[in-house]
Design a protein that fits this description.
alpha/beta; 8% strand; 2 domains; two-stranded antiparallel sheet; Rossmann fold; globular; 7 strands; 5-stranded parallel beta sheet
Amino acid sequence: MRYCKNCLQPDTRPNTRFSQDGICPACTYYSKHKEVDWAERTQIIHRLAQSYKNPAAQYDCIIGVSGGKDSVRQALWVRDYLKLRPLLVCLSYPPHQVTDIGVDNLSNLIELGFDLIQVCPAPETWRKLMALAFEKFANWARATELALFSAVPRLAIDYKIPLILWGENPGLQLGDLGTLGRTGYDGNNLRNMNTLSGGSNDWMTSAGFGKKDLIAYNYPSAEEFLEHNIQIIYLGWFLGDWSLNNNAMVSALNGLSVRHDSPSNTGDLYGVSSLDEDWVTLNQMIKYYKFGFGRASDYANEMIRMGTFTREEGIDVVKRFDGACSEKYIADFCDFIGITNTDFWEKVRSIVNPDLFDLTGNMITPKFSVGKGLS
């Protein structure tokens, strides 16, 4: 395990690759910001926007939203700056999972004047797939993330809206290099991100789920994209100030409600991530035990790149909050999928990376030093 020499990104992040100088892809991308001709990028996005305007259609583009910080900023920028007519699409969680904050934030988008469609997969199928995914992979979102990412292109095809606008480029801004396209804004290789390309879905069909059960969980094929001229464009590539914190500030000024729980319960330093549900916190904790980094690392890395944290300050934050997860969220999740707390921790302990962590009794202790890696 090695850390980026600039930030606290470890080389254990799936699909990442450091430079010969030991710099992660996200830091390499950010270091080039000063060299970017932002006026040229502005011209590019305006040309693209004009080419997709369709006076004969009700909408020019489609944007996937949760109601959170990125959603609000994208929707406002697309409508008020690019002068496009966006249709917002939200994959809705079952009632037991969605938070009150999430409901309020969707209402806020509607109150800001946007049309919004909610896609609601069958709740019981969702719950069973969540339980199955946790049992097999210790990743409850293995199936539900497929539905989350598939909802927008599925609706784009059904509604004949060829332009999908997405937020950050995970290849450039996170280091998931499989998603890189022909240009910095081409998002049609999003299908190759770690979340979507994690192998066959036979584990769902072999458990008895039929094709009709899984329609919402099937990302459209590359052939379907070509047939319907679907194009995903990453908006983050055009916005020099695109960041977790900046998006949150813009959105908070436009009605965003934030979470007020402590980062010691969530790993979320400012309460602005995954506002529509709480159980992503569990997956961030499990990610930490698999790969040695969690949500606090993502915050710290961005802030180190922006110069608002020193690397030493980032190390302190990551040590304190990476892998944090409230027992309340764990208990709520266990109740939903019908397992005990003991069942939960047995499964989590079974996937802990033994190269990175020591398991002694009930303790899970890192073998690595944050910022230094394995000795």
